[in-house]
Amino acid sequence: MTYAAAAVRSEGFTPPGPGDFDLPAIGGGSHFELFGQTFVLGVTKPMLQIVLAAVIVGAFFWVASRQRAMVPGKMQFIGEGAYGFVRNSLARDIIGGRDYRTYVPYLFTLFFFILVNNLFATVPFIQFPTFSRSGMVYGLAILSWVIYNGAGIKRHGFVGYLKLQTVPPGISGPMLLLLVPLEFMSNILVRPVTLALRLFANMFAGHLLLILFALGGEYILFEMSAVYAPVGILAWAMFVAVAFLEILIQFLQAYVFVLLNAMYISGAVADEH
Amino acid sequence: MGGSLNMIGYGLAAIGPGIGIGLIFAAYINGVARQPEAQSRLQSIAILGFALAEALAIIGIALAFVLKGSNT
């Protein structure tokens, strides 16, 4: 144990770590043994949150689109504005072409699903970003991977699609030997990983920072001598400031995830050079 | 002197994205200064570039916490 860690632990403050993200199953959960490891079966809070987000997004847009009035009421106006934002600035401007509307449902649902899940980190009494559990993000990344590769294969055929992704235009000869594996790795293997990791790491780091400020401030205020109290108040003020920054990051990460998806789809269905 | 090698790694990893984001927004500010009408068109490119560069720093801080160091 390092000197600093020993000093801190002897005073009683344990800094937060990834273990703080392992929320327990509600009601205990049941354990079972497999291959010498204990597994827990149960429903945890992030699982409930991700279902709640799906219900919220679905219900909101269903209610917003029910009236279908020519002159929209308030709900319909908000719903149309939200849909129009994704359809125009994300799908039409980036994918463009004649068949961008095939991908609008996916991008639109993805954007609001990720946004609501991210905003759960700010909502009181929930205060846990669902996508700080990396397993939740891998599902989205795999779905995105299947969709942009599937769209490309449907458009160009399997070999044609691979050629489009791995062979840059205007290169021939021995450079290809170097470039094709590099492009294959970068366009087909690494993309879902970076998509997932970007969203997961942003949510994880932001939430960890908030936990640190909250617990640290509480420890300084209540468990250390009163002469350190201003530092504790400062820690809590930083908590509020970083919480607002996190709202910006939540919007940004949802936007960037969908923007990158649109760019990958656009690159996959692009016409040959 | 104690501490974690992970944090030194994160500190080194944050140099690149810091410079990168500075360059991106310098280009954005220059573009808007030359042609203010282009602000909304350049903004989405700037945000995309910022998120891509920031991803590396964020991966650094996340892995610094998640991976087990050898000294701590």
Describe this structure in words.
The complex is a heterodimer of chains A (273) and B (72). Chain A is 68% helix and 4% strand. Chain A has 273 residues and is mostly helical. Chain A has one domain. In chain A, helix 4 runs antiparallel to helix 8. The longest helix of chain A has 49 residues, at 175-223. By secondary structure, chain B is mostly helical. Chain B has a single domain (5-66), classed as F1F0 ATP synthase subunit C (F1FO ATP Synthase, Up-down Bundle), CATH 1.20.20.10. Chain B contains 3 helices and no strands. In chain B, helix 1 (5-13) runs antiparallel to helix 3 (39-66). The A-B interface holds A 1-6, 17-18, 89, 194, 197-198, 200-202, 204-205, 208, 252-253, 255-256, 259-260 and B 1-4, 44, 47-48, 51-52, 54-55, 58-59, 61-63, 65-66, 71-72.
In brief:
The complex is a heterodimer of chains A (273) and B (72). Chain A is mostly helical.
Question: What features would you highlight for this structure?
Answer:
heterodimer, A: 273 residues, two-stranded antiparallel ribbon, 8 helices, 2 strands, B: 72 residues, mainly alpha, F1FO ATP Synthase, 79% helix
The CATH C-level class name of chain B: Mainly Alpha
Largest sheet of chain A: 2 strands, antiparallel
- The fraction of residues assigned to DSSP E strands of chain A is under 5%
Helix content of chain A: 55-70%
CA radius of gyration of chain A is 23 Å
Radius of gyration of chain B: 17 Å
First-last Cα distance of chain A = 59 Å
Largest protein interface, residues of each chain: A-B, 24 and 20 residues
